[in-house]
């Protein structure tokens, strides 16, 4: 894509948070839209309304090969989910002395795919457990509903007799389900459902989570084994010392003695010994 096309695309498509719901007039001209928000299924054609008045010689940019322009707006031949966003229609005179703009939000509708879940197979009672659910395809983004043993989980567990003994927080936007703490009644098969108002809601596979007690017996057993091994090591060191094995090992390392004697005075004709060593 060339520099000119990139600049034109940047002018046309601006992702912003706010949506202009009324016409905007700058200078003597006005630009307005009859539909500030448009929802259309993916792969369909759509027209974004953009009309103007008060411009003597308006000009509009071209937008790739998928869009055609007319005095009443722009038409996409086929939209994709990547086209979702807020578009700005700008109209200006050749001299650039007067211009107007209006924004139109386009939402390309895509049904949700089957969500994936992350659920621990076991969770310790009294601890924190986090379950997650997500699906990447839905447009607009999906919201999530959790189920335990096929029963929908309410946002507030205290409002339902089936979940009154549970303590959890459920976020329908992120799909996160947090138990804090886990209770014995939280054992069950969990699944989540994704929906975005378009197409059919889709449910994930069910995964069983067991709420288990802290295994005190295993912890005690591990401590006992550690103490026994430590006791055996200490006894082995004591036994070796009491039998004298450590002392004999030290005595077995013999030291060598070196005797040095100064040379004695002799006559010049005698053999001169400079030094002697006895090992």
TrEMBL record:
Transmembrane segments: 216-241
Top-level taxonomic group: Eukaryota
Short name of one Pfam family: ig
Signal peptide: 1-27
Keyword Membrane (UniProt): yes
GO CC, one annotated term: bicellular tight junction
Domain Ig-like residues, every copy: 29-105, 115-208
One GO BP annotation of this record: cell adhesion
Compartments reported by the entry: Cell junction, Tight junction; Cell membrane
Gene3D superfamilies in alphabetical order: Immunoglobulins (2.60.40.10)
Keyword terms of this UniProt record: Cell junction, Cell membrane, Disulfide bond, Glycoprotein, Immunoglobulin domain, Membrane, Phosphoprotein, Repeat, Signal, Tight junction, Transmembrane, Transmembrane helix
UniProt keyword annotation of Cell division present: no
Membrane topology recorded in Swiss-Prot or TrEMBL: Single-pass type I membrane protein
Family of this protein: Belongs to the immunoglobulin superfamily.
Quaternary assembly: Interacts with the ninth PDZ domain of MPDZ. Interacts with the first PDZ domain of PARD3. The association between PARD3 and PARD6B probably disrupts this interaction. Interacts with ITGAL (via I-domain). Interacts with CD151.
Protein name stated in the entry: Junctional adhesion molecule A
Name of the encoding gene: F11R
């Amino acid at each position: 894509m060339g520099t000119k096309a990139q600049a034109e695309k940047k002018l046309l498509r601006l992702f912003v948070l706010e949506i202009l719901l009324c016409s905007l007039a700058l200078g003597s001209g006005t630009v307005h839209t009859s539909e500030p928000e448009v929802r259309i299924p993916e792969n369909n054609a759509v027209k974004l309304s953009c009309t103007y008045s008060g411009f003597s010689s308006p000009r509009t940019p071209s937008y790739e090969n998928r869009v055609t322009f007319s005095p009443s707006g722009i038409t996409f031949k086929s939209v994709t989910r990547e086209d979702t966003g807020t578009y700005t229609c700008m109209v200006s005179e050749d001299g650039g002395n007067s211009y107007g703009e209006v924004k139109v939000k386009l939402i390309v509708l895509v049904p949700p795919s089957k969500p994936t879940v992350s659920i621990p197979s076991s969770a310790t009672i009294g601890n924190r457990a986090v379950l997650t659910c997500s699906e990447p395809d839905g447009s607009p983004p999906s919201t999530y509903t959790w189920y335990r043993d096929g029963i929908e989980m309410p946002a507030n567990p205290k409002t339902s007799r089936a979940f009154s003994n549970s303590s959890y927080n459920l976020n329908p936007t992120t799909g996160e389900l947090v138990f804090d703490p886990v209770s014995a009644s939280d054992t069950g098969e969990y699944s989540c459902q994704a929906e975005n108002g378009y197409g059919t809601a889709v449910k994930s596979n069910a995964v069983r989570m067991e709420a288990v007690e802290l295994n005190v017996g295993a912890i005690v057993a591990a401590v006992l084994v550690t103490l026994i091994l430590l006791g055996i090591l200490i006894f082995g060191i004591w036994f070796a010392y009491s039998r004298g094995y450590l002392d004999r090992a030290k005595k077995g390392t013999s030291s060598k003695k070196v005797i040095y004697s100064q040379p004695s005075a002799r006559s010049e004709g005698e053999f001169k010994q400079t030094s002697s060593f006895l090992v």
